[in-house]
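hey can u check if this looks right to u? its 461 residues, i copy pasted from the old doc so theres a chance i mangled smth
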Amino acid sequence: MRKVELRVMEEKKYRIIKNLVDNNGNKHRAKVQLNLTMRSINRLINVYKTKGKSGFIHGNRNKLPANTISPETKHEIVRLYNERYYDFNFKHFKECLKELEDIDISYNALYKILDSNLILSPKAERKTKKTYRKRIQNKIDLGKSLLTSEKKLIIDNDILNPKASHARLPRKKYAGELLQMDASEHLWFGDTKTQLHAAIDDATGTIVGAYFDEQETLKGYYNVLKQVLEGYGIPNEFLTDRRTIFDYKSLKNPQPEYNSLTQFGYACEQLGINLSVTSVAQAKGRIERLFGTLQSRLVNELRINNIKTISQANKFLKTYTTKFNNQFGLINNNIPHIYEKINKDTNLDLILAVVSKRTFDHGSSLKYFNKYFQAYNKNGRLINFRNKTRAVVIKSFDNKLYCLVNRIYYRLIELDSHERKSREFDSIKPEVRKKYTVPANHPWKEQSYLNMLARTAYKQH
């Protein structure tokens, strides 16, 4: 006969009900001992009479819960992480499992599966990494405690100097009130490090502009600014890093072609945007935290989508930022915005421009990047300026060159080193000789013509 093993509470119920039935005991006493209703006592009596001791085993004994993850699925999850989704943080990995692999699993269950296989998240803190190393070496020692003197030392050092601390700040009330902007150098894709320029709205936490470039350049920030202006409108303020792209004081010779404040700062001034700079990373913690998230998520997204070039990456950013904002942004919280609409007559290509000063020479030309240019008006007519006439050269966002002289814009066209067409020789068209055909009435051909007519008449007869 099979031996029936009961657990502690099951054994207690069995002994009390067995004594009640065998000795004709008091049901009320059993009710008090088991803290059950009389109806439950009568049910247990019937179970004992029909099934005996085995009837007191819980019905779910040796049964798996309905939401139990099969060993095959666990093995597949570990395989996918090791082979394809390595370096993904666990939350991002959970989202990809549901979206791409059709495996829907809770975060806690996923964490337990990966943790049991000693897979550490790339976002793990130093304390967690230290614990994992101890687990791998089988030298876990969590019983140590700090001495009273050590605890007191920590408590005494808990209060920071207000100047050295960076207290958490609330978000801005309105969208567009403050945009934090910066660039991050990282191995985003391929084998070469590139710079990701980005801007984030402090109130909503949404990416309002992002652009890849080889270096941290004015062009990269101009592309971000144009995305903000066309997608949202004119914001109230930019908070950026204290770099020469924005702050001219660190430059010894702030010339227009080398000093970027006269470029980006000029564009912000024309649009009515306040520009603030800071050298403290924690002061613009929103954009710093964004880059930390993107370095964990975007790198892997670019890798599994086989992105290899900057142009491919910038094209991919258009769809990825929308996905990111829907997932992490506060766009559904009905936060009011203060973005201003751009005037239809505003030419952004001239505002997002690189401006520098030049003078015309004796040949009515000016030199720009070792090339000579001449000014033309709207009708395409060459305009000759006197020597040493001052002009402002404007390289527009669409790479066209203009000059501003006495508040009038002129188009700059490069002067070729040699003429493309010779006025004297290329204008002469070569003579085309026609083949001369002798007419039938020519003196030396007339007789042969008459002979041909005679032969024709003879054949007809």
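The chain has four domains: 8-56, 71-136, 179-328, 353-414.
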